[in-house]
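To: structure subgroup
Subject: Chain for Friday's discussion

All,

I'm putting the inputs and outputs inline so they're searchable in the archive.
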Amino acid sequence: MPSFSVCLQKSLKHLITSIFLVGAAQIARADITLPMPAPDQINRIELDGYEQLEELYESLDYTQQSWQEGKREVPRLFLQTIPERWRSEISDQVTVATKKRIFFRTLGPLALLANEEIEFQRVALEKAIADGDNTVITELATQYRVDGAPGDSTTIAELRERINPVPPSLVLAQMAIESGWATSRFAALGNALFGQWTYDGEGITPEQQRTHLGDYKIASFRTPFGSVRAYLLNLNTHNAYADLRDMRASDIAADRQSTGMELAEALIRYSERGEEYVKEVQAVIRQNGLQEVDNAVLEGQYYHLIPIGATAQ
């Protein structure tokens, strides 16, 4: 597998060659993202039931026992779509413990990948600052919704605060709550794991839409990873979560690891339930032992998990 620095060079080269179109000042949108793995680095596995997942996890030593023994290396498992059968059939047939185990193990790698991408963008930012590369700085500012000139110290400071990972324990806890352990209608129809609203006409109309709040829909995504990526961008850009970013920045300045339990305190505006919602997020983290997920890392080849009947991405 190519090194992190080689991937960065390839991604930035692609960005610079594709961001400007032939002609006047027409500019194409080219978000800085992790490079796609080569086809020979991806193992595509079709699934016809959760038993196959359990067998795969056993073969990869991705088990409850190995986790309890302290192994924090997680295989690069990426579910390509939420199977409708999970909502309509399987989740009701298994025990609560089994449902939670499948949920965390199968969707946990998506949180780690999304954070890996943010780290990639952070390295790209620092390289661009060192090189005086305003093209890359401008693109990151566009992605992270920061206004200001690329060479301005305020722009750089805001980008450095926004382009940072979110503890996976927090990601998974909110994912579980917002998607009903991936059994919600929105998860089944649009891989929507966080119930994010959209007003652009795309998405899924809630069955009990609160029309006094406008013609909003729940944003849908081609893959579950798209939902995780959009959720992290929301936390890293929306004014409602400025306190979360400030808390994280204080941790970084003190050379201290941010935790999901801590940053959950800044989610009081994520839900109309306010403090009650914060306590629920913290309870999910605590009751499911998610604190240790903050120490997990991805390793090995990619495994694209494709439920039978779904289209491979």
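Points worth raising on Friday:
The beta strands are 42-47, 73-79, 197-198, 217-218, 297-307.
The two ends are 20 Å apart (CA to CA).

D.
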